[in-house]
Amino acid sequence: MTSRTPRDSRLRLVGPRTLATAPRAVAERRTRRSAPRPPEGTPAPAVLARMARAELAGAARIARWADSAPGRDSAMRPGCAGTLTESAAERAAAELGLTSRQARADWDAARLAGLVEVHGGDARPGWRLRAWDRDDSAVLRGWVALFDAWSLVRPAPDEHAPAAVAEAIEAMPQVLSLLQLSAGPVPVPQLLDLLEQRVTELRDERCEIPFGPQPAPVPAPAEAPLSPLLDWALRGLARVGALTLDDGHATLTPLGSWAVWVKLEQIIVAAQSPAGNIEHAAEEMLRGCARLRPNAARAEYRAWLAARPVGSAVTELLDAARGDDALLRGLAFEALRVVGPPAEPDVRAAASEPPLRPYALMWLAEQEGADPEDVHTALTRDESTWLWVDTAAAVADHGESELLVRHLESAIQPTVPALLQEVRAVGHPRTVQVLVALAAAHPDPALAKAVRRAAFQVHTGGA
C-alpha cells in the first residue's frame, strides 16, 4: 500500500503544454517589480530598431556580400584576429563601391555586432544577420554589442600607457550616465572633470599600503593628461552612433540614451534579486525558483543572467538541464527563453542530445516565431512521448499524486494501452519509476493494474 502525503504543487499542467512552460504554484505571493519604463521621450523599440539598422547598414551590407558573393569560401576566410584580408577588402570595395578602408571598417563593425562570427579560421553569417529584417530585438542587441565595443573601434592614443587607457574605459560609464541624466548637450570640459575625478577614485581604490620598512619613495612620473583619452572615447562613441559632438558639447543620440538606460537597469536588476539566488550556481538557482510564480521566476532569471556573461550562463543552464532532475531540465529551458537568441547556437547543438532534444526543439521553434501554445507540434511522436515521461518524472518527484493522474490526460496517444506501448518503446530511463508512481496514484484499479504490469515488463525486459 502506498501512502502519499499531499504537498504544495510546483507545477500546474495545462493541456499538452510541457513542464518547460507550465506555470508553477507557490505557497506565498511575492511582490512583483513593475516593468521599468525608459525615460520620457525615448522612441518606441521599432523606431530605435530603424535607427540601429541605419547605423549598421554598412556592416549588414558587407556581411551579406561575404555570405552570397561568388567564391564565398575565400571571402569568408578572415585574416589575423578575424580582420578582412587585403585581397578580400579590395574585392569588397570594388563590388560594393567602397574604399578598402571603408570595407575594413564595415567588416569590423559586422563582427562586433554579431552579423559575422569567426570560428577558427573561418567566418560565417551570425544569427543576427538571418534575423536582421524581421526581428527588431536582434537588431537592437546587435547595436548594443557594437556600443559595448566602442573602445575597439578606434586605436587609443599612443602617448598613453595601456593601464591609463583601461582606467579611462572603466571610468566612461559614469561619463555616459551624466550625459544620459542631462538629457541634452553637456560641455566637454565638464565631462573631463568627471573623468578625472573617477580615474582618481579608481587609482585610490587600488592603492595598497605597504607593510614594514620601505625604501625612500621615488617620485612618480607625471601623469599624462586625460583630455586626449576623453577625446578618443567620445569619438569612438560617436563612431558607433551613441553620441554627437558639436561646438564643444557632447549629446547622446536616442539610441545612446536608450542603451545607457538599459545598462543602468541591468545593474539595478542584478542588485535586486527578489529571492536572493543571484550568487548561486545555475542548479541551485533553478531549485530556488521552482516554487515561484512564472513572473517572479523570470525576474530571478533576469537578475541571475545580468550578473554573469551570457556564454557562461548558457553553459551553466544546459549543464543543469543534463542532470537527473527533470524539473530542473524544464526550468533551465525556461531560463534560456529569457536569454533569447544569443543562446541559439548552444541550444541547437544540445538538440543532438536525446534528453534535451524535445526541450531544445520547442525552444528553437518558439525563437523562430511559433506560438508558445503550439511549439509541441515541432516534435515527432517519439519525442513527444519522451517528453511526456520526462514531465511525469518531474511531477512524480516534486508534485502531488493528483497532478500525475491529470498528466495522464495530456498524452498525445488516444488510449492508455497505446500510451503504455509507446512509453515502453522510447526507452526513457525513468520509465519504470514513472509507471509505478502512476499506478500508485490512479484511482481506477483496472487502469492501475495495467500500468503496474507495463512497469514490470519494462523492468524485466519482457514483451
In terms of topology, how is this protein built?
Layout: H1 45-55, H2 57-68, H3 72-75, H4 86-96, H5 100-112, E1 116-119, E2 122-125, H6 127-130, H7 136-148, H8 162-182, E3 186-187, H9 188-206, H10 227-239, E4 243-246, E5 249-252, H11 254-271, H12 282-289, H13 294-306, H14 310-321, H15 326-339, H16 344-350, H17 357-367, H18 381-398, H19 401-408, H20 416-426, H21 431-441, H22 445-460
Helix pairs in contact: 1-7, 2-5, 4-5, 8-9, 8-11, 11-13, 13-15, 14-15, 15-17, 15-18, 16-17, 18-19, 18-20, 18-21, 19-21, 20-22, 21-22
Description:
The chain contains 22 helices and 5 strands. Strand 1 (116-119) and strand 2 form a beta hairpin. The chain is mainly alpha-helical and 463 residues long. Helix 8 crosses helix 9 (188-206), helix 14 (310-321) packs antiparallel against helix 15 (326-339) and helix 15 packs parallel to helix 17. It is elongated, with a radius of gyration of 28 Å. The strands form 2 sheets. Strands 3-5-4 form a 3-stranded antiparallel beta sheet. The chain has helices at residues 45-55, 57-68, 72-75, 86-96, 100-112, 127-130, 136-148, 162-182, 188-206, 227-239, 254-271, 282-289, 294-306, 310-321, 326-339, 344-350, 357-367, 381-398, 401-408, 416-426, 431-441, 445-460, and strands at 116-119, 122-125, 186-187, 243-246, 249-252.
